[in-house]
Amino acid sequence: MYQRRIGILTSGGDCPGLNAVLRGVTKAAEKLNWQVIGFRDGFEGLLPPCQYTILDRASTAGIMQLGGTILGTTNKGHFVAKVGSGEKTTVPKEVIESARATLAELGVEGLIVVGGDGSLTTALQLYEQGFSVIGVPKTIDNDLEATAMTFGFYSAVSCVTDALDRLHSTAASHKRAMVLEVMGRHAGWIALHGGISGGADIVLLPEIPFDWEKVADVVRRRDADGYQSTMIVVAEGARPKDGIQHYQATQGAEHHFGGVGEIVAQQIAERTGKETRYCILGHLQRGGTPGPLDRILATRFGVKAVNLIQEEKFGRMVSYQHYEIADVPIADAVHQLRLVDPSNQLVEMARSVDISFGDQ
Fold it and tell me: Is the peptide bond before 209 cis (omega within 30 degrees of 0)?
């Protein structure tokens, strides 16, 4: 007979490491003789007909190395509390009460929400309505201010690095400029880390507006110096000076960024005469096997979430700071994006190895 029953759900975009969190929570809970209920398809699993599954050692065995989430996830539905950067909505009262009835009927005493800024905004609203909620931050963009690291980030960077490694050879063979568009709507951490590790020559970030002619000058200069190929990494949210970010408006959800890679390729070709190609990595960055660092961090997050329930420290979010796992109020975590500072040490280091950000 279990002493306690807790719940967990994964919400928002998927990323490598989610299954490692589920495994970590389950193993830590069973040590305490607790039962874990996994709600399917994010918050939607809390609503009738209440889609859930029991998580135990058998059902979570062998899942740590799998990408995605065995529970499923969604960034749509009845619980959307964030529709754009800084734009919040209120989850309807009838939806909240229906979820409350589900948790009460199942005897769930604590709910772990694994998600990014939007999902944690919903979690905060539930907590403010009396739900016993613990947050676990999840985003490949690594852009939450309240934690120094999020799982999934380094797996995404590995994907970018591998893509650049492959593009180097074809770019050199054809003497081309190659543009690789990567994820990063507001923060350029993936582009910055991936560009450095993949040997890019130009990295364009949302935080550092670029000048078209300065980008073109880098390509011309490399050709003049005998380097007949140029590698450019561009975050999907990057924009030129006095320009705008390229996105497609969507109804009832955050804007879909993307397409800037094609624009960069066209501009380089027109301004330099250089044969240029572009590639959009897109959701390849979200998929696949999580790397070792993400597996470890996700497991630590899962165990910490169970500890917070045991201590009844609800309304808190798991956080990684100074190599230790700590916790912060969810209210302090949401809508506080950690952006790349143009004077960041990593940016300065990149400039020292001749990586251009198109601004000087």
Answer: no
Confidence at 242, pLDDT banded by 50, 70, 90 = confident
CA distance 271 to 357: 17
Whole-angstrom Cα distance, residue 56 to residue 51? 17
* Three-class DSSP labels, 9-65: EECCCCCCCHHHHHHHHHHHHHHCCEEEEEECCHHHHHCCCCCEEEECHHHHCCCCC
- Active-site residues: which are they? 141
For 254, other C-beta atoms within 10 Å of its C-beta total: 18
Alpha helices in 175-235 (DSSP H): 189-197, 212-224
Q: Which domains does the chain have, with CATH numbers?
A: 4-151+290-333 (3.40.50.450), 156-286 (3.40.50.460)
Q: In whole angstroms, give the CA distance from residue 247 to residue 227.
A: 33
Whole-angstrom distance, CA of residue 199 vs CA of residue 167: 11
Q: What angle do CA 169, 173, 178 make, to 5 degrees?
A: 65
pTM: 0.92
Which segment of 14-18, 246-250, 298-302 scores lowest on mean pLDDT?
246-250
Q: What tokens appear for 353 in the block?
A: 């190895």
